[in-house]
Each structure stands twice: as structure tokens, then as C-alpha cells.
Amino acid sequence: MHTLTKQPTSFLDAITGPAELKQMSVEDLQKLAGEIRQEIVSSLSRTGGHLASNLGVVEITLALHRVFNTPKDQILWDVGHQAYVHKMLTGRRHKFGTLRQFKGLSGFVTPVESEHDAFVAGHSSTSVSLAVGMAIARDHLKLDHKVIAVIGDGGLTGGMALEAINHLGHIQKNVLIVLNDNEMSISENTGGLALYMKRIKETFFYRDIKEKLDSIEGSLDKVQLTAGIWDMILEVKKQAKERFDTPGIVFEKLGINYSGPIDGHDVSAVIKAFESVKDNSAPQIVHLITCKGKGYQPAEDDSIKYHGVPAFSLEPQLSEKVDASAPKPKAKTYSDIFTQALIDVAKDEPNLVAITPATAEGSGLVKFGKAYPERFFDVAICEQHAVTMAAGMAKAGLKPVVSIYSTFLQRAMDQVIHDVAILNLPVVFGVDRGGLVEDGETHQGVFDIAFLRSVPNFTVLAPKDAAELRDMVFTAVKESKGPVAIRFPRDKAIGATADGDANGSHSSKPRLIDPTKWEILSGEKSNNGQKPPVVLAFGAMVDVSRQALELIESEVKPVLVNARSAKPLDVNLLNELLRDGHDTFITVEEGCLSGGFGAAVLEWMSTAGLEISNTMPRVLPIAIPDQFVEHGARAILLDLNGLSKEKIAQRITKIITKRT
Amino acid sequence: MHTLTKQPTSFLDAITGPAELKQMSVEDLQKLAGEIRQEIVSSLSRTGGHLASNLGVVEITLALHRVFNTPKDQILWDVGHQAYVHKMLTGRRHKFGTLRQFKGLSGFVTPVESEHDAFVAGHSSTSVSLAVGMAIARDHLKLDHKVIAVIGDGGLTGGMALEAINHLGHIQKNVLIVLNDNEMSISENTGGLALYMKRIKETFFYRDIKEKLDSIEGSLDKVQLTAGIWDMILEVKKQAKERFDTPGIVFEKLGINYSGPIDGHDVSAVIKAFESVKDNSAPQIVHLITCKGKGYQPAEDDSIKYHGVPAFSLEPQLSEKVDASAPKPKAKTYSDIFTQALIDVAKDEPNLVAITPATAEGSGLVKFGKAYPERFFDVAICEQHAVTMAAGMAKAGLKPVVSIYSTFLQRAMDQVIHDVAILNLPVVFGVDRGGLVEDGETHQGVFDIAFLRSVPNFTVLAPKDAAELRDMVFTAVKESKGPVAIRFPRDKAIGATADGDANGSHSSKPRLIDPTKWEILSGEKSNNGQKPPVVLAFGAMVDVSRQALELIESEVKPVLVNARSAKPLDVNLLNELLRDGHDTFITVEEGCLSGGFGAAVLEWMSTAGLEISNTMPRVLPIAIPDQFVEHGARAILLDLNGLSKEKIAQRITKIITKRT
Question: Are A389 and B130 in contact (CB under 8 A)?
Fold first, then answer.
């Protein structure tokens, strides 16, 4: 490992805002680009963050701020994680040391942070819709600024981006779409559109025919033709070229003017491209080809690895090859355990297939893809398609498993209801990043329990540790007759060790379990006199609750239950607890309070439970309050939302004290 | 009004299943098509149903069943409401008298009804995803049937259909897409794709260039050219034609083979088209041009009106013009009231804009579009785009109102969270068809309360009657600082009369109200001794609960509250009621029990409420149980789910009896 010698950043130091860029020469902008790259690599080596995508848009960002005027002109950054350069140029350079840290700079764009951020972004494919809405508003309010959507080729695979382009082609509003084409979303890009754009770059279209026309021309040279005929031949060539050589014929046919492809790292060419279309009143797409990780060789070589990076040791030099240092074994995450379980169960389940909407890397599923390439489907950023395709697969006899982040599952709620649940199809959902994540408001996986629980036919599970996740995957694939969601957090898996096998722990062998049967983990059901309160903990909160109970200094020892199924509830156990005289239940979940697991217990207590105990048992839900949760380390966010062991202990202590 | 003379249906009578079609001559198929049309018109005049779309697909359906073999071959009908002909040909003709009636034939496709229905459908744009999934399954299982998606040009505007086509182009599975292009979804179609397909039909592409090439050829005739040059010229023409004359160049570029456009009412041409591609192993789209309402003049003339029809008096003859009889005034629906309120408030709110995802007719919003065409945006079947576009509009200073059916809002839940709620933008959602609808499982609007309530920053309202809906719209547009959802059922608006003005009632003037303040409508807060139970009714259930209370013969007179806001709750009133000693609350809502309004009250009672009363108050939610609700008249479905006045009265009586 090396340390980067601090290079001078005299150009960057002189930038206080986008205005300075207007005066700079192209040569100086190029030097500035170099300084920015260095600053990004150096800064992210300390904080972590989205490296490769930001290195890819340095020149595009410089050109945007050179040609357009934010905040008057509105730039909508799709996804928003590639806006670091934009942030540096709009007064936030000095905050980069706090990137993605609690109360620090957000990893995405947000108007809360700067007036130069026209909107919030975190999920993909929203920018064109936002731009269309803002352009309509601009025209309605008789303003005259420019609205610009910067979208990647990955974002363009998302259905809503295509909806928006289709609509824009119809209403012909003045919107500039900057297509940042690096042939890659988080994972490799998928789809006919991706192939098509690849072919654009190979100028597939016109080449043959042009060669043949040239050849005809050559032959005709030898014979006597009237001037009129020559004019006509030239006209044909021109028209053919104009009409069919347009690499962006698909966009043109949808009503969007196209220019490109242009080298997105040639700052002069990009500036020219923007200048030449900036006064257009019709919708325009400028197609720029970029290289993710540009200028930092390790990231150029493996842009997937460097998509989002934790703080990393700095490689010696920009553009300089380095030996990859031997990777240290890392503690297994729940994502790892999930994938390994799938790989293992796939051995004797030949009809198991795995589906991911462009999150093969983050979810670890890329490993499944290597083990079973023919049973692995990365459908690009298409959550809706992923879920309905899985429904079709299940109906036709396969055993589909959809690996999807909780926050992205929000994109496919209708498909979950309409295509999976109505026919009660056995689709298994691995709901990754269920709970709080460091990325902030846009990525919190807090709604899945409430959403999925309200859908008939669903089983909603969450494991307490690695071994249980493995058992749940095994059981769901083997035995489920309807849809099953298994949610787990973005964290190291409890019970899995860095050097352990991928099973989560050495001893864990997958078992068929009844995941709808809850387990009493500790505490005695009966106390002398008054019955102790019962803590019903769901998923990742089981272990935190266990630790919380250890902190409590009280003679009352609450009963701790691993409530591994939020739907159905284990009503037999609840019945039993009520009949034994327990009258206080504390639910703990890493999800929104509204409608979550706690609400499920409340609903049951208010009807069936009431029948048994004749008075309404007390149910005290501990969950994430009704607010969006900012970015920062998961441990901080859990504490902030009352879900650290200390906060849970305080809360339970208060309940016990009040009660006695 | 005339009655149709019963025409002989000898061909149709002979059909017991698709097999018979294989033997018939084209002439006989044409006669059969006529008989089917007559039967559809005649049958729907009694039961109501989707008329125009079914008349449009008679020949396509005949050709599909002639060329392919269901149930082995799998036909995925997008939306599914155009599958009546398919149903007639697959053994369900005799059940048409029960169409869309309780326990009768479904208005959509469903495998529960027939093995010839390969999947359930009700929402648009799912068929290609299902087909891709089923084709993958077929190949994996080494089967050899055909998978066919029948999708309309409207369905093709939906983002998920575009996602699926994009993916299909990439993986090159054997899927046949039958594009039924009638230039119309429920409302007029929107989008660059629609314009593009229009241009396809005008053979815009190759015409000019071909004329010019012909002209050059003509001139060259006069000069001496070698044979080789002529060959070359012909080759150029051929290649140009092959490559650029393809009307489906957009599809071709995405990797889907294209053939068409073909007259979709020429049964012989359609059969030929299917025959010629049925053995292709690559993805194929066949583009058929059809006329909605074909063969029934009133429906051809106004296919929007005849999209879905209630039982209607039969016009005299197929293909014969009739005078439109004077329309009778109909009782205003909540949709009518909502639209009229928007029109009225738009007068002095110049920045109000209205958005609909292809439901302008059903939602009544077409009237707004006529009053304010420049402030009206029908974005086609693009719920995701609609919501995010509205977010962009709100951010940029407009006051967007999204009119959307509850069931279709499911398509845009991520956009609601990520694009509207995080920035707390003042977007008003008119959530139409909130509650039970006659269409069945796919269309029940029962999840919106639970979903929206869990999203931070949202206000979730439901009016008890027409005047209150009007007030809510007025107030939300004028005063809301964040997102507001106003949900109402598909029904006649209470308080609106057939001959009343569109305000809902003669006396109603829109008022600014505090919709988060609940109203006590009847009952006395304090009783002698024990306090009476409090009925907290939400939206359409207020009036049903009022009627229910009238049925109850008890000395205990429950308090009836119009709980018009499910979020936020009126905690002041709840506080007051608890302090007064009320300890039993009954919530009534037309939404799912899980996480709904009742759960909201439970959640509050379990924490804040408990603080006040020291024992957990009893909350008994009356809501739709955890199951999908079949089709049938709303009144029947309400009763079936415990939400008729009789069932509510029974439930409340039981609670009162048990308590005393």
C-alpha cells in the first residue's frame, strides 16, 4: 500500500462556484479535471463512496457547468451518486471529508444541501420524468431556463425512464437529456437497448450501404451522366445519411432529437455538443461515451468493484497499474449467506432460478451467476419486470427467487400484488437491505414489512442470524406453496465468521424448519405473581433485544421471543402466553411503526387476543417512527431511532418500572 | 330503442372448443366472426362489460386459436378485458349471461376459470414480462410450446412492458408478441411511441428515398452501364429496403423481429401472419391494426364511451347508424364531484395542473381537460412517470393534482415515497375507486390506506359525502404544504343528486376546512355510568355506519365520529374521548385490515392512549379481511366483507352486548 503524494490543486483551489469555469480555457479545464480526479480518489480513500461513476463524469460535469447556469438552469442527476464533481464545483468541496457520514455530506443529490441540486435522487430512472414535470412548470410559469436530465445507460433501462421519454417525445418540451453511456449500471447492463447502443457505437447502421453507394459513385465516374443525376445521387446519399445514419434512430423515431456519440472525456467536444443544442426548443438527447473509473487504473480495470467503495488504501498513482494486494477475508454479510444458501439448495433443485434487477454485486448474487449461469437472470434496473417475470416462471413450473433490495421492491409493489399474490405463486423474495442503511432517506428499507404484510397470501419472514437465514431459504425453496419474503439487513451476519465457511457458521447445516413457529429464547414464561412482559423481536432485532435484556437491571426477567414470522403470526404461542396470564407485549422491529410487525400483533390482540384475555393486552411497539431517516452509519441510525440495545433497554426498563 | 332480432348462430353453436376452428374455411371463419360480434353486443347489452375492445379482437382471437393450440400454447392477454371472444371459444359461451356478476364469469382472464387462461390479468403491460418468464421456464424444462403475449398499443406505453421488451431483445427467447394496435388505450393514447406507430402506418420511412432511387434508375437507363453496376444498385435498393423500410425499426433495433402492419380484421391475413412466424425461434412482434368497436357502429363511432359499458339498450343493427337517444341525467359519482371541484378551484389557482395515467374517462377528468386543456396531462399508462412528473412540477412551483385509481397507485408507490414524500412536496392525489369495485381481485382498491399511511409526510383523507370531497379538494389545493391523498369509492356520491348542480348538492359551496379535525356526528359523549363505544368511521363508511347505528336496538347509543383523516389522527379528539372515560373504539374502513386506519388507531392507543387511560383501550377494527376479493356488485362485496350496514350493526351489537 502506498500513500499518494499530495499534488498541487491550484486550479481547483481557485474554484468557488460554477462561475469561474466560464472563464477558463479548455487546457485549464483539462488540468482542473485531473485535479478533481485526484481529489476524489484521495477523498474517497478515507470516506468511501461511489468512486468509478464519479471519475467517469468529470468532463461532463465541467462542461455542464461551463455551458449552463445552475441554480437557474436545473440539472437533474439520475440516481445522484455520480454528482460528487458537481458538489465540488458548487461550494461543497470542503465538506468532502464528511461524505456519507452522519450529519455530513450526502452521497446523493438533495436540495436540502444546495440550491444547485434541483431535486433529490437516490433511485434510478427518475430524472426524465422530473425534467418533463419541471419543463412543463417552466413553460407554464413563462420562465426561460434550461432543464437537463443526466441519465446513465443503466438508468435508461428502467421502465419509468422509457415512459418519460415516450411522453416527452409526444409533448415536445424543451428538455435536454444527457446520456452518460458507460455500458454499465451497478452490474453489467442488460437489454436490447444496451445492445442497440453498443451497435450505435459501432456505427453499424450506415456503413455497408455507404460503402456500396461510394462504390457505385466510383463506377459512375467512368460514364457520362448529366449534372442533374449527380445532384440526385448526392441528395439520396445525404437523405439516407440524415435519416438512417443517425445512430440514435430509436430516439429520433420517438420524437427526441439525437446527437452523438461523443467522447465524454473530451471536454472540448462535450462543451461544443452542449453549446450546439442549448438553444434548441425541442427535446434533445446528447449521447456521451464515458469510461467508469476514468483516470484511476484500478477502477478502470474493475469498475464494478469500484462502483461503491468503503474507505480503501490508496493505490499509488492515477493511471498507474498496481498489483492487487491479497484480499483479506471479510466477515460474511447476510447477502453472502443468502447467496451461498441459494447456491447450495440449487444443487438438488434443478428448477431453482435466481433473478436480480441490476444488484448482482451488492446482493452477492454474482456468485450464484457464476455457479449457475444458465439459471441466473440479471434483468437490468427493471424491478417491475423482474417480479412479473418471476411470477410467469413460477406459474410455468420453475422455482424463482428474486433478490431485491427492500427500497427497490417499492418499485414492484403492484407486481407483487397483481402478478404474484393473487395466484398465490411460490416466488421467494430475498429482501436485502431490509432496515436502516447508511445511504440515507432514499435508500432506507423500512416499508417492506408493512407493505408485504398487507398483501394476502404472503409469508413475511426475517431470520435472527446467519444459520436461520440459511434454513429459511432452504425451507422456502423446498416447501413454500405461495409467496415468501425473507428480509435481512445490510450488515455482517450474526453467527458467521470471517474464516468460517459460507454456511454462516461451521456447524450450520440447512434444515427444514417451520419458520412460522416462533421460539422462546430466554426468560421464564411464568413468574411469581405478575407475569413478566414478553419481548417479541423480529429479525435483526432479536439479537439486539437479547443484548438489551442483558443490560436491564430488574428482577423482572422479560421473556424473549424470536418472532421470525411477521405474517402469519404464531397465534398458538400468543394464545398460550395470554392463557398463561402475560398481559404486556413489547414488539421490536427494524421497520416503520405504521402498519408494521407491531401493528400486526396489535391487530390480533384487538380481536382474537381480546377474546382470550377479556381485557385488551398491552402491546408496545418499538419501531422506526414516522419520519425519513438520514444517512450515516447503521449503528448511529439505529440508536437515533430507538433501536440500539441501550435505547431498547431504556424503553423496556421504563415499561417494567411503570408497570410494577 | 330497438331490440335486436335474434340472428342464427349456427357456426358459433357448432364450436365446443378451439379444435373446431382448425377445420373451418376462411369464409366460414368470417361468418363466425359476425356471429360472435352479434353475441357479444347482445350479451353485453344485458350484463355490461368491455364492448369496444372485444369487438376489435374477434379476428385476432380466431386466428390465434386457429394457428396455436391452447392450453399447451400459452396466450397471455394483456389487461385481460379483451378476452371475451377467447372465453367464448374456450367453453365459456354459455356463462356469458353471468359476466362480471357475483360468482359469474370474470371480466378478465384467470386460470381459476379455465386452463386456456395462462395467467391472471387486470392491470396493463404485464404480458410481455409474463411471456419472458414462461418462455425461460419452457426452455429450462425442455418443453416446446409457444408463448404469446397479446398487448395493445396502450399497454405498450407502460414502463414495465418496455422493460420486458428490452430484456427479451437481449435474451432472444422464443416469444411472439401480438401487437393489437387500435391507437387507443382507455383514453386516447399518448407518447412518442404512439406517434411513431402512427407514422409506421403511414409508411413514412422508405417512401421518399425509394422514389428518388427509382428516379435515378430511370435516368441511368439512358446511359450505358455494366451489368455489375446494375447488380450493385439493386443490391443497395434491397438492403436499403430491408434495413430501413422495416416499419418496426424501433423494435428491430431492440432485437425483436417485426412484421406488419397487417389489417387485424382480415382473418386470412392474420392467420397467414401467425403461420409465417410460428416456427421462428427468435422474438417476434406481429403488428396488427384494428378498430375498437369493429362491426357495431355506435361503438366504432365512440369507442371511448363504449370501452366499458353498463348494460345498455340495444341499438338496432350491427353496422347500422342510430340516433343517439337523449341521455338521462345520472346521479353524480364521486369521480364527477372530484373533477368538478378541480375545475372550480382551477379558476383562481392558475398553477393548478391535473394529471391522469390514461384514466381520463373513468375518473371524469376528461371534463377538466376540456375546461383547461393546457393544464391537463394524460401521460398514457404510466403511473410511475405520472407521479414523478407531478413531483417535478410541484418542486418547480405548480400545484399538481394526480387523479389515479387506488389499484393503479400500487404501480407508483416508490415514486410516492422517493419523489413526492421525501421532499414533502404538495402533490394532491385524488385516489379514485378506493375500496371495493365490481371488477374483482385485480382491481380492488384496498391497500391505499395502509400503504400511504406508512409514508412519512403524507396526509390521508377520505370524505363522507360529496360536499366534503369538494371541501377537501378545495382545501388541499389551496393550503397543503405537503402530499395529500383524498380517497373516494367508485360509487354515487352521497348528497349529490341527479339533477343537482355538479357541486354535489345545491347548497354546497366549497369551504376551507381542517380535514384533520374529526367531527362527532351523533351520540352523546357521556352516558350515565359506562361510556358508550365510539365508532370511528372513515370515508364512505361514515354513512354506512350511520345507517348501521339506526338498526341497532340498544339503550347504549354509540358515538359516531366522521374520522376523515387516517393520517394524521385527530389526537385531540381521541385524547378528549379517553379523558371522558370512553374505553371502546370501533373503527370502520373500506380498506385492508392489515396496517389500515384501525391499525393507526391501535398504534396510537398502544402508546399515547395508554398514557392517558392507563389501561389499554379496546379498539375493534372493522375492515376488509386478509384475502383477495372476487368480482361482483359493490354492495354484495361490502356485505361479504362485513361492511354492509347490517353486518356492521351485527358486529357493533355484539360488542355492546358482550361489554354490558
Answer: yes
Least confident of A272-286, A497-511, B32-46, B98-112: A497-511
CATH architecture of residue range(s) B10-202+246-301: 3-Layer(aba) Sandwich (3.40)
User: Of residues B564 and B312, which shows the higher confidence score?
Assistant: B564
State yes or no: is B576 an active-site residue: no
Read off the pLDDT band of A528 (50, 70, 90). Answer: low
Which of B171, B212, B407 is closest, CB to CB, to A236? Answer: B212
Q: How far is CA A297 from the centre of its chain?
A: 25
**CATH code for the part of the protein at A10-202+248-301:** 3.40.50.970
Across the beta sheet with A534-537, the strand order is A519-522, A559-562, A534-537, A584-592, A618-624
A360 grid coordinates: 448482482
Strands (E), B271-357: 284-289, 352-356
Which residues of B fall within a CB distance of 8 Å from A609? none
User: What values do phi and psi take at B41, rounded to 5?
Assistant: -60, -45
* CATH top class, domain A334-487: alpha beta
The Cα of A397 is separated from the nearest Cα of chain B by a number of Å equal to 7
Cβ(A77)–Cβ(A50) below 8 Å: no
Nearest-by-Cβ selection for B607 from A158, A454, A620: A620
The chain A residue lying nearest B136, using CA atoms, is A393
CB B216 to CB A193 under 8 A? no
Confidence tier at B503 by pLDDT (50, 70, 90): very low
Q: What is the pTM of this model?
A: 0.88
> Which residue of A254, A377, A441 is in closest CB contact with B193?
A254
Cβ atoms < 10 Å from Cβ of A318: 19
Q: Are B610 and A621 in contact (CB under 8 A)?
A: no
Q: Which range (A214-218, A422-426, B182-186, B488-492) has the least confidence?
A: B182-186
Task: Give A389's contacts in chain B (Cβ within 8 Å).
Answer: 129-130, 132-133, 136, 164, 167
3-state secondary structure of A535: strand
Residue entry with cell 370474470: B106
* Grid cell 417476434 in the structure block, residue: B284
The one-character DSSP state at B91 is: I
Q: Compute the distance between CA of residue A90 and CA of residue A203 in angstroms, rounded to an integer.
A: 37
Contacts of B120 in chain A (CB under 8 A): 418-419, 422-423
- From the list B159, B233, B451, the residue facing A163 with the nearest CB is B159
Domains B334-487 and B519-659 share a fold: yes
Pick from A204-213, B124-133, B271-280, B505-514: least confident: A204-213
Q: How far apart are CA B26 and CA B19, in angstroms?
A: 15
Return the pLDDT at A319: 36
Give residue-wise pLDDT tens across range A353-386: 999 998 988 899 999 999 999 999 998 889 999 9
Active-site residue (options: B138, B411, B487, B490)? B411
Q: Which of B439, B429, B359, B365 is nearest to B401 (CA)?
A: B429
All cell numbers assigned to A500 = 468460517
ipTM: 0.88
**Separation CA A502–CA A587 (nearest Å):** 31
The verdict on a CB contact (< 8 Å) between B129 and A595 is no
What are the extents of the domains in chain A? 10-202+248-301, 206-245, 334-487, 519-659
Question: pLDDT tens-digit profile of A282-319?
Answer: 999 999 989 888 888 777 777 667 667 766 655 444 43
CATH architecture assignment, domain B519-659: 3-Layer(aba) Sandwich (3.40)
Instruction: Name the residue in chain A with its Cα closest to that of B596.
Output: A595
Residues of A in contact with B408 (CB under 8 A): 414
Mutate to test the interface with B, among A252, A616, A660 (most CBs of B within 10 A): A616
Task: Name the nearest CA neighbour of A254 among B388, B253, B17, B471.
Answer: B253
